[in-house]
Specification:
The protein folds into two domains: 13-204, Rossmann fold; 220-415, 3-Layer(aba) Sandwich (Rossmann fold), CATH 3.40.50. Helices cover 40% and strands 14% of the residues. The chain has helices at residues 23-31, 44-51, 62-72, 104-113, 133-144, 172-178, 188-199, 211-242, 246-253, 276-283, 289-313, 339-350, 368-371, 381-387, 398-401; strands spanning 13-17, 36-40, 75-78, 86-89, 122-125, 159-162, 181-185, 206-210, 320-324, 355-359, 376-378, 390-393, 412-415. The protein is elongated. 43% of the residues are buried. The model has no long low-confidence stretch (mean pLDDT 96). The structure holds ligand SAJ. Ligand SAJ is lined by residues 128, 165-169, 221-222, 225, 229, 262-263, 265, 268-270, 272-273, 328-329.
């Protein structure tokens, strides 16, 4: 096979680096098409769980697919990198204290895969990244392997692309296959090879562009949502000042044919929407004014909720708060960047006299940041509500939506998601 022939390439072995919320489903979908996939993760526990056919996190419907591809032998996991025709990098891309983009995990992935590269290998960066990261990653790869080239026409070329993930946690089974994908080639041949790889499992449109546009498009999507949620969150604060029911207001305004206001809440969490806009702000700090303000509005919401709670508890001698939900959104077990968790933690630390009961149907035990605090304990819904002076609804889990309203009678209720209004 001519390594430079990108007309129709078959991928005999694909390596997916990082077996988290995105990497593992991606690996399983490719493996389900009969392609040998090796999942690489630095965490031995994750590797063992995958090889046992068990998902190390909660995602509806995914366990069946994972156990099938592991049983069939098309997906295996290990800690050491392998030779492969294509590498898909799905490692975390956090920000530093100053909100600048941190490439440490991408660089570590490059260091491990560089010795395995050969002419014709495809490397796809799937992690959400700051503009220019794919190009920097490619340059780093050829620094590590000066015998290889990034020029499509050279015999010793490797091919690089950015194909950002777009799936919604909780709907991954549906969206992995059916969401349109951005295929951002660093070069035309990189784009073509990546298009072929993603066409093995994605049945929607594969939209080819260059790498930096794909990077910015992904950040733009999440920033669009962040700005719109900030608008809703700001309305809550304005309405509270003016004595207006924000839920009724939004419902009424959304009857306009061209208005679609999102839902306010305790803030914005998860590792995507609360993070990605900062990569734009960091790349263009003087220009990204609205995007930065939206981040500040959403990050300020937990503080506002805390003040509401303390106001509602004024005059109580032994105040009890029952917080319903600590995950970053409904019906999942994911606590990353959760504003609800932040609210509960800060209420506890800053107000040691509070007695805080936490109800979270999606986790077996509280994370150490909460369980280590002496004034917090986990309880079942009814028990926690019965004990509460203030019932603080933080996440719209299905268990809370279907709660009989009568159990809240006589309680002060702060409903940050508007499910009982
Ligand atoms: N939220 C609100 N009000 C709303 C919608 C969401 O307060 O009306 C809050 C949620 O409670 C949560 C946060 O925003 O705390 C983010 O939740 P989400 O459901 O909007 O999004 P994520 O973070 O689960 O996934 C997003 C998705 N991006 C977009 O919808 C533009 C997903 O498609 C991306 O793949 C994902 O980020 C990612 O990995 O980047």
């Amino acid at each position: 096979m001519d390594p430079n022939d990108t007309d129709s390439r078959s991928f005999n072995r694909v390596s997916v680096v990082g077996l988290g919320y995105i990497g593992l489903p991606t690996a399983a979908f490719i493996a389900s098409k009969g392609i040998a996939v090796v999942g690489i993760d630095v965490n031995q526990g994750v590797v063992e769980s995958v090889n046992a056919g068990q998902i190390p996190f909660f995602e509806p419907g995914f366990d069946e697919l994972l156990s099938r591809v592991v049983k069939e032998g098309t997906l295996t996991a290990q800690t050491e990198q392998v030779d492969a025709d294509a590498y898909i990098v799905c490692v975390p891309t956090p920000f530093r204290g100053d909100h600048s983009f941190d490439t440490k995990y991408i660089r570590a992935a490059c260091g491990a895969l560089a010795p395995h590269l050969r002419a014709g290998t495809l490397v796809v960066l799937e992690s959400t990244s700051a503009p220019g990261t794919t190009e920097d990653m490619a340059k780093h790869l050829v620094e590590l392997r000066p015998d290889l080239s990034l020029n499509d026409e050279d015999d010793n070329a490797i091919f690089v692309a950015h194909c950002p993930e777009r799936v919604l946690p909780g709907k991954i089974m549906e969206e992995m296959e059916n969401n349109d994908r951005l295929i951002g080639g660093l070069t035309p041949k990189g784009a073509e090879l990546a298009r072929q790889l993603y066409s093995t499992f994605c049945t929607a449109d594969l939209l080819v562009t260059d790498a930096i546009t794909a990077e910015m498009a992904k950040l733009t999507e999440n920033s669009f949502r962040d700005v719109n949620i900030a608008f809703a969150n700001e309305l809550t604060v304005i309405c509270d000042r003016l004595g207006i029911d924000v839920w009724e207001l939004i419902e009424l305004a959304n009857h306009h044919p061209r208005v679609n206001i999102l839902q306010p809440g305790p803030g914005v969490g998860g590792h995507c929407i609360a993070v990605d806009p900062w990569f734009i702000v960091s790349a263009a700090p003087d220009e990204a004014r609205l995007i930065k303000t939206a981040r500040d509005v959403n990050d300020g919401k937990p503080e506002w909720v805390m003040k509401q709670v303390l106001r509602a508890l004024e005059g109580k001698e032994k105040p009890v708060v029952s917080a319903l939900g600590i995950t970053f959104k409904n019906d999942i077990d994911d606590l990353r960047e959760s504003p609800s968790l932040e609210i509960v933690k800060r209420l506890s630390v800053e107000n040691p006299h509070l007695d805080i009961r936490v109800v979270e149907p999606n986790v077996k035990k509280l994370p150490p940041v909460l369980s280590n605090l002496s004034n917090i304990k986990k309880q079942e819904t009814m028990e926690a509500i019965a004990a509460a002076d203030v019932v603080l609804l933080l996440v719209n889990h299905k268990e809370f939506i279907t709660l009989e309203h009568s159990v809240l009678q006589g309680k002060k209720v702060i409903d940050t998601k508007g499910i009982w209004s």
